[in-house]
Amino acid sequence: MVLHFLVTHPLSALAVDGNGMLLMLAIGTISTVIPAYCISAAIGLVGPERTAIIGNVSPIVTVGLAVGILSEAFTEWHAAARRWCCLASGCSEERRRQSELMSRPPRWSLRRS
User: Fold this and answer.
1) In 47-75, where does DSSP find H-type helix?
2) What average pLDDT score do residues 34-55 get?
């Protein structure tokens, strides 16, 4: 992308005024620093399991907001990719659980002690 930009634009197009720098600083802070502190606070309040569940809902909410508010396109290709990602995630989790169960010793035994 950088090479394409440099080929198609003059180098002077990279110059940013003070307002642009302030806007970039605000966007960087709002989108990276504050969420990191919020995640840490959420883990402290509700625990890592519940925080992870809510974190998994976030991409779905983001897609919904992009389609609803910004009128972004959501085609059958997007839906298919989402389905495949969910399926792969579910299969991976099931495989992890099965290997966990197989590595545990049995809770009961046929022998009497």
Assistant:
1) 48-68
2) 88
Q: How far is CA 76 from CA 20, 69, 73, 112, in A?
A: 38, 19, 10, 59
Looking at every residue in the chain, the average pLDDT score rounds to 86
- The model's confidence at residue 108, banded by pLDDT at 50, 70 and 90, is low
The number of C-alpha atoms within 13 Å of 67 and in the hemisphere containing its C-beta is 11
Please state, in angstroms and as integers, the Cα–Cα distance from residue 66 to each residue in 60, 69, 71, following that order. 10, 6, 6
CA-to-CA distance for 81 and 13, rounded, in angstroms? 36
**Taking Cα atoms as reference points, which of 93, 113, 110 lies closest to residue 101?**
93
Amino acid identity, residue 4?
H
